[in-house]
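User: I'm new to structure prediction. If I give you an amino acid sequence, what do you actually give back? Let's try with this one:
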Amino acid sequence: MSGCPEASLGQNGASVLSKVLVSFVRWFFRHLYTTWAWSYDGVAWIVTMGQWTTWLAVALERLPAGMILELGHGPGHLQETLSGATCTPFGIDSSRQMSQLAARRLRRCGSAQRLSRARVQRLPFPRCTFDTLVSTFPSEYIMESATLKEAFRVLKPEGVLVVVPTARITGRLFFDRLAAWVNRVARQADDPEAAWLTALRDQGFDPVLETIPMRRALVYRMTAKKKPSA
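Assistant: Good question. You get back a string of structure tokens that encode the predicted 3D arrangement of the chain. For your 230 residues, that looks like this:
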């Protein structure tokens, strides 16, 4: 009997520590988009074990020429890449700090800045403006009905919404496994839900979900075409 309280205390202590770590990681990731946006690139490299830019390239495989709007442009990596492609890129983000970082990046590379501070639930563009919308590793807002309604509104007939929602690190090295844990805690590695496809269909899209195997990760990509009859 005398050993039971100690065992219980050890279990309780581990549980409390786990909850504290989870809360801290989620709090930290929330601040990455605002207060600590300056550290975003470094943290992204660490928690993806250097695979960040490779994962972004997965989105580019489904982007045609034309008018493209990036939902949540972050520090501007995709904007910079798209500026050298056969398309006209635009970007929106609600974070003042991310807008500043993206503008600075585009100035350095001599690219046009077509950035707007806005929320995805209220896009400052007329209906049927864009051929493609793209979003890489967004927060939960991307599947909100208000977001999908706005996406549908600003897309041209048969336009496409491309979302790379999550990736799952599959490497077996210690730091791969540690990075995988951090991503799970921060809700950056959740497997896509069937409800996402249902939400897209309900808003007039024809979605396809792909799982793309990479050397040390699985990357998910959703491609949702606006139905011609809509």
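You can read the tokens as a compact description of the fold. Here is one thing that stands out. The radius of gyration is 20 Å.
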